[in-house]
Amino acid sequence: MTGRSDVGAVADLRHRYVEQLRRAGVLDRPGLAEAFAHVPRELFLADGFHGRDGARTTATDPAFLPAVYSDEALVTKLRDGTPVSSSSQPSLMATMIDALDPVPGARVLEIGAGTGYNAALLATLGAVVTSLDVQPDVVARAGAALTRAGLDRVRVRLADGYLGDPAGAPYDRVVVTVGVAGISPHWLDQLTPDGFALVPTAHAGNHPVLAVRWGRDGRVTGRVVTPAGFMTAAGPLSARYPGAHPEPLRDRALPEPTVRHPAVWQPALGVHRYHDLWFAAGVWDRRISYAPLPGAGAAGGCALLGAAGDGAAVITTDGAVLGCGPQAGRYADDALALRDRWIAEGDPRAERWRTELTLAGDPEQPIWVPHRWYRAD
Ligand SMILES: C[S@@+](CC[C@H](N)C(=O)[O-])C[C@H]1O[C@@H](n2cnc3c(N)ncnc32)[C@H](O)[C@@H]1O
């Protein structure tokens, strides 16, 4: 990657990447397109990444740069086949940076340094960034990449993000780039009075991003910024608590469906609208989570999981409902009622939901979790 033609090829790929993000409508904030055009993502992926099959693509592979400059999350570290670090999907990073509103000079605490690329984008926009990660090798690589990119004023620290960064507080913003079960009280305590935290918070098998803040009345409230999926955090941030949705069913297929209710949408819902339905179903029923869709290969979707683990009903993107297991009919009826309620209530977007949070999890290390959902109408 040293010759003139390589430099030209990278510039061309990066230009097309920025145009793709611009067309997706996520680069409207002044300076954001310039930040994506300026920061070389390949510097933050210098050790390569893993494809869906786990195979590693390195910087000398012809597929490397086209993947680096695509709107894809790239997994940089696996443990026992499970992703434990990555560079998140660029359009999602852009959406979160926009929602974060990082004015120049804003003090931002990032939880989940990963490759350092998101911290680099924030710093390029003028934010003063401290980024924490729980894995020593990840911290070392992110720090080295930031130095290579000339951004060595970003502070990268090895720490469990649960405690935040008391020494560096107060922060104007906290941005969490890993999926958590709930919000650390330390983050809220370390914010300035007008500050807020952007947090991918577990809901129905996904991690929609919530903007969370203290209200003047002492309540903690959140609103949905965007549906999203993230890898799961280590430590107390992933505590289980009573009333949480079931864990996503990733490692085994559901039995063949025996009950089928027909599709209602032709064409099928797009990804975002499907997540709007999925989000609402999760508000209305605590059994909603994620499971592989029967007959859809590895693709997964919105599933109502039976408590006994022997059956479920899934709602597919075209609105069909498939029930399986000994109580297939009952699960399918319940899932059908959720689909029809979403339609009857005017198919609300996920971004319309608001929540009040309550403390849950380990009493020694509590987390704020969504407790009551309502819609901003
Ligand atoms: C999706 S990656 C972050 C992406 C990153 N912001 C970037 O731009 O590349 C998630 C990161 O969160 C880290 N992580 C997981 N649990 C954590 C915790 N409890 N505290 C701090 N970091 C954590 C992982 O080690 C991983 O590197």
Automatic annotation (TrEMBL):
Question: What does the UniProt entry say about where the protein is found?
Answer: Cytoplasm
**InterPro entries documented for this protein:** PCMT (IPR000682), SAM-dependent_MTases_sf (IPR029063)
| Keywords in alphabetical order | Cytoplasm, Methyltransferase, S-adenosyl-L-methionine, Transferase
Q: Which residues cross the membrane?
A: none
Coarse class of the primary localization is: cytoplasm
Its domain of life reads: Bacteria
Q: What is its EC number?
A: 2.1.1.77
* Top enzyme category: transferase
Give the record's family classification.
Belongs to the methyltransferase superfamily. L-isoaspartyl/D-aspartyl protein methyltransferase family.
PANTHER family linked? PROTEIN-L-ISOASPARTATE O-METHYLTRANSFERASE, PROTEIN-L-ISOASPARTATE(D-ASPARTATE) O-METHYLTRANSFERASE
* Protein name, per record: Protein-L-isoaspartate O-methyltransferase
